[in-house]
Amino acid sequence: MRVQIFTVGKLFTNCYVAACPSTGEAVIIDPGIETSAEAAEIFKFVEENALKPRFIVNTHAHPDHICGNRVVKEKFNTPILVHEKDAKMLGIVRFFSLKGSPPADALLKDGDVVKFGNISLKVMHTPGHTPGSISLLGEKEVFTGDTLFAGSIGRTDLPRGSDKDMKISLKKLASLPDYFKVYPGHGPPTTIGEEKAKNPFLSWSWQTL
Fold this sequence. Notes:
Layout: E1 2-8, E2 13-19, E3 25-29, H1 36-48, E4 52-57, H2 63-66, H3 69-76, E5 80-83, E6 106-108, E7 113-116, E8 119-125, E9 134-137, E10 141-145, E11 148-149, E12 152-153, H4 163-174, E13 181-184, E14 190-191, H5 192-198, H6 200-208
Parallel strand pairs: 3-4, 4-5, 5-6, 10-13
Antiparallel strand pairs: 1-2, 2-3, 7-8, 8-9, 9-10, 11-12, 13-14
């Protein structure tokens, strides 16, 4: 899998273009695009590499992760996928003047598989930051949204957040192989092994739950 990271918006959200090298099919994960310049950069990358976006996938429905859904869908005629428990949040607007999203075209649940080309990303339900937060599992990588960051975790004190759910979700992620690369919703990539060794939230949840 080829993964390109674009850091976009006021909250420095990671938007990922994940592509199958052999077919050019791709998914766009968390397009938190706020400006035409950010959109142009992503669209140029897609076009220059002859990629064929198949889906928009939102790891959760907070505005900084979904505010670019509309412009991406209009550009590529790409369906929007989000977990069923966050679907109603897509239309929420007026958070730092961010835009809402069109409705989801399909709803995800735990265990679903998003396929593009020869690649499959398995949906792992990892609530805590929001009720419908998901992580996307590849063969050697995981896109964790705002559940797990390098050295930290997502907030649970926002509306609909849950400390209890977050602890369960972190234990799920800690059970992945240490070599798994972590692509978080904000900040730099890391690995499961690094986070188990250095992230106090992950090691704590793994040992006490």
